[in-house]
Amino acid sequence: MQLGIIGLPQSGKTTIFNALTKSCIKVGGFSTGSKSACDVHMGVVKVPDPRLDKLTAMFNPKKKVPATITYVDIGGMAKGVSDSGGLGTEFLTQMHKVDAMILVLRGFAGASGSPSPVDDYQTIATELLLSDLSMVERRIERVKIDIKKVKRPELDKELAILDKCRVHLEAEKPLHMLDLFPEESKALRSFQLLTEKPLLPVLNYGEGVDFTALQSALSSSSSQEATALCGAIEMDIAQMSDEEAKEFLAEMKIAEPALNKMIRTSYRLLGKISFFTVGEDECRAWTIPLNTKAPQAAGAIHSDLERGFIRAETVSYDHLTEVGTYAAAREKGYVRQEGKEYIVKDGDVINIKFNV
Ligand SMILES: Nc1nc2c(ncn2[C@@H]2O[C@H](COP(=O)(O)OP(=O)(O)O)[C@@H](O)[C@H]2O)c(=O)[nH]1
Ligand SMILES: [Mg+2]
Predict the structure, then answer these.
(1) Per-residue DSSP letter, 345
(2) Among 25, 147, 158, 228, which lies 20 to 30 A Cα-Cα from 38?
(3) Strand extents, DSSP E, the chain
(4) Mutate to test the pocket of ligand 1, among 10, 215, 233 (most ligand atoms within 8 A of CB)
(5) Where are the domains of the chain?
């Protein structure tokens, strides 16, 4: 899973990226997103999950492998970019690779004045919409020309989908809110439109700012829960040793870094869940979309497991940890044999039986 970090210049994208990935990339620099790949930073982050920690303590494996998210710090968003020649190519290339975007909104007093996260949210949302709209309009023109030359049913279908998108975008609604048939979304994917991806607002607040007021205004205007964190503090915490961080958090009376919450929120908002595999070699968390059937979940581990799937020996995390050992779970009848139609639940501990 890849998440892009976007936002206006100087909103704290690189600061948050550093905090997430424990990197030390220079903050305060300007990036245009158009010149070179150097403007783009990429890092892999382990998803904090206390359940995996507990399973690891139970099975004492050689290795613990958490789920991961790749974060990409993408500069290059600014007001008016979509009419002044469009978004940079490097920006677009990166955006097409991500599953969703985190939109960082400045919630601290900066060089460009007092914070206005709601306006900034609207500005970016509009830029993304306009970029898609111009892409769709250009495509429509092309298809119309092609239709005049040859008669192909696919072209008519494509035109119908594009028109549906155009109407939706003109009503200022992002494409991820458009109801489409599966084959329509599949066709749409090849156009690589930006508003098709979920956009998660994150308020980056500073000292002396009433962030609860900003956060609730933001949540209502973006019609989804906005995460709030203080990028500067998070970056400091990320650069401390584990010991120091623990002390600091206790002093500040914070249960855990706000970043952890942001990581989990993004996981949930993207409709992802985790299942686990356990054993002496490794305990591991795997990421799958909500409502995935057992064979496809097995495919997340290896394609052979999907191809040769026989059944999934399954026990829920709660049941397993309630009794403390796999043998006890079996004795209690908590271990189930699930077939091809089983829908994997968040926290399932699974052992795939397969034959290839
Ligand atoms: N007060 C305050 N300043 C911040 C915070 N996060 C970032 N900054 C500052 O804002 C400036 C821009 O940060 P940067 O991460 O480079 O923003 P980017 O352009 O979006 O990548 C830098 O001078 C940061 O030190 C924060 O939470 N509070
Ligand atoms: Mg930056």
Answers:
(1) P
(2) 228
(3) 2-7, 41-46, 63-65, 68-73, 100-107, 199-205, 227-229, 272-277, 282-289, 309-316, 336-338, 348-354
(4) 10
(5) 291-354
pLDDT digits (tens, 9 = 90+) for 173-225: 999 889 888 888 888 888 889 999 889 999 999 888 888 888 888 888 887 78
Q: Is 108 in the pocket of ligand 1 (CB under 6 A)?
A: yes
Structural contact between residues 25 and 41, judged by C-beta atoms closer than 8 angstroms: yes
**DSSP one-letter code for 3:** E
**Residue with CA nearest ligand 1 atom 19:** 10
CA distance 252 to 20: 20
Q: If you classify domain 291-354 with CATH, what class do you get?
A: alpha beta
Indicate whether residue 206 lines ligand 1 (CB < 6 A): yes
> Coil, helix or strand for 173?
coil
Q: pLDDT digits over 240-265, tens only?
A: 998 999 999 999 888 888 888 888 88
